[in-house]
Model the fold of this input.
Amino acid sequence: MKMTKQEFLLSSHLSLPTLDLYIEQRWIIPEQTSTGVTFSDMDVARVQLIQDLRVNIGANDEGIDIILHLIDQVHGLRYALAQVQKKP
Amino acid sequence: MTNPYEILGVSPTASISEIKHAYRRLAKQYHPDLNPGDKAAEEKFKAIASAYALLGDEDKRKRYDAGEIDETGQERAQQHHYYRDFASSDQAHPYADASGFADFMNDEAFAELLRRSQQAQRNRRGQDLHYRMEIDFAESIAGANKRLTLPGGDVLDVTIPPGLLDGQVLRLKGKGAPGAGHGGAGDALIEITVLPDRRFTRNGDDISMELPISLSEAVLGGSVQVPTATGEVVMTLPKGSNTGTTLRLKGKGAPRRTGGYGDQFVKLKIVLPKSPDPDLEAFVASWEQGKSFNPREDGKL
Done:
């Protein structure tokens, strides 16, 4: 489901400055469309992860940069492995 | 669900900071997004989270210790989608990162995979670029069209809207770094510095200034030219205008958000001629009423 910025703020329970920070940090990359930016359910889940890291686990912003980068790489690797597994 | 103290591995007498510490240690270890492939991690993390929801809250912990609520009393049946549920799908997505196996590129099979997962990256939005720009006071009130020369030699046309405040940031959509594929370019963010003008001071939407006037203008009144942010205007001085008298030029301030304009307040200041004038001296010496008037009489001094 595609969400507008307003809808996204509601479903992610973020404040506007926090969301703007996340976008600025490029932790969240909304999709650009002709009518403005839109967000996905995946972005909601990613915000939840960032909140867990920042608030509950106590990672600082530099740490979050590194963690997200590594997680994205792990998923890239897992995807690659899954593809290899599918091949006869 | 088992005893929350056991789940967190703390004693029932543990302090709140010990509990928090234990939770953080376990959360780091079992957060599903930090264990993308471990299905059991989600169950463990849930148990840890709800144990912490109970023991991390002093009030709930007291009620639990007193037997008023059970371990599951605070369990919220909330459906939770972890990030890994999305990121591990077969679909290409904007956060996919293939740099973890970029060095396998020589292998045909991996090369193909890399191409596919980079498909998503090709559509990344460009970066926002930050710039600074100085404008003078009049431009901040009246608005202006400015041109910003970028470090790379490109130019950016910037429209300054009327009434801009010092420190405001203008966003030029799509004028940032180019994106990849259909990602679109980022934005240019321009922080504006308004250079001070020694004549004018801005107070919200109003502008105040001090206007020097001559003795004869003060006594006899008349028309004077007054600078404003949008050019000179003619203002009528009433007879007997004094130093400190403030006149209002309606609508000569900055535009208001709610529509209309602020005002310019002109505070008068009588200035005598620089060199002593014998005629003026002779007149004042012969001016009877001037000798009896004492401006310090009204008790202010």
